Amino acid sequence: MSKTERLFHPRTLVIHPDFKNLEEFIVSIPERFQRNEGTVIHQGRNELRKMEYNGKEYVIKSFHSPHLINRFVYGIFRPSKAKRSYDHAEMLLKIGVGTPQPVGYMNIRSGLLFDKSYYISLLSTCPYIYDNLFTQQFDYAEEVFRAIGKVTARLHEHGYAHKDYGRANILFQKTPNGITIEIVDLNRMYIGPIDMKTGCKNFERLPATPQMHRWMAEEYAKTRNFDVEKCFELMRAYRSVQPGKIDNLY
């Protein structure tokens, strides 16, 4: 990168202490995206790519450039989505909730205006996502749903709720030590007190049969000292009716 480019397109780079040797790789990520390096995992408003570097695999999320007003806001006032992803991953790991190990992030500005940002993590070892529970047979499915209920409760007990808690953002695998759950796509998180109704509503984007909801509700309620039946009814209701229709259920 030339001196002129650094002047007009300054970069903010944050790297986890365990991965300081990756600075050269992280700085080169925009050029690697331009050359279409790596394997595309998801391509839409944002782009997710898997890349290998020095024998290890990483996942890089490239966040799209926002519209003009937000380019000014993110350039001066608000933390970027990449920074929020990194910070939230650190928070989750501290409270014992699984997520792929954060490696770092990079913000690129154009003068005072925000331009692009990239979030880098290790590739998860979990081979399955929540959606696979409906497309494949797992003889340990009950264990997975119970683990999701317990992990979600831990998140909520610490005052964190994923704002896009959907079928593609919960990863899982079975190991000799039990079920591993990892949560991804962390740039949008609610931080604050979470009561029973708010907590149960957080499951609304996860498809589930009554039995699946029962398993999740039992573990969620047990962890948070809530009534199991009320949690079960709330999860079912929030999944099946329009928002605002059950405000007076309890």
TrEMBL record:
It holds the Pfam family Kdo. This is Protein kinase domain-containing protein. It comes from Phocaeicola dorei CL02T12C06.
